[in-house]
Design goal:
heterodimer, A: about 110 residues, 6-stranded mixed β-sheet, 5-stranded antiparallel β-sheet, globular, B: about 110 residues, mainly beta, 4-stranded antiparallel β-sheet
Amino acid sequence: KQEVTQIPAALSVPEGENLVLNCSFTDSAIYNLQWFRQDPGKGLTSLLLIQSSQREQTSGRLNASLDKSSGRSTLYIAASQPGDSATYLCAGVNAGKSTFGDGTTLTVKP
Amino acid sequence: DAGVIQSPRHEVTEMGQEVTLRCKPISGHDYLFWYRQTMMRGLELLIYFNNNVPIDDSGMPEDRFSAKMPNASFSTLKIQPSEPRDSAVYFCASRGGTANYGYTFGSGTRLTVV
């Protein structure tokens, strides 16, 4: 059974700082790894999708990496802004369904 | 594309009443998922469909919950009778037929059972 862990559970940083969110998974036979953002009271918005054959994906200030052999993925956010404050979830996709982590709640202070 | 569409956005009902949540997936997506999110338990997969067929319903909490997908463009999640502990945000998500496609989530239905 796939288990996905995100550390830390919460993170507070000053504006402008670069930061890394971590995601680890137990079953390396994933098809892909997807990062989401969730604002309070809202749904999940997809940020980046890394296919199992890829090692990283980039979108603007976001960069996600995937190391299947070690069961880890990271989400790097450059030059953080208050608008980045949200909960970030990762999901490992196995046959048919995903397993989600509990998320990291990020607060970027002005 | 309008994305995954869920209705209603909010539902307040009394204990014992029947509740029906609705979802329209993205056209062409072969997979549809129902999730429930609470502060205590996080995001839980309830059931998912592939090509309108239920594949895994092991996450459905009990017989009070049922889900259907009569066609590729519509799914329902029904709770009968509802209980206060069913209060949560229910999300529907869809995905393309290859695992290279990511998930797209709807905006969710916030259910409150009083």
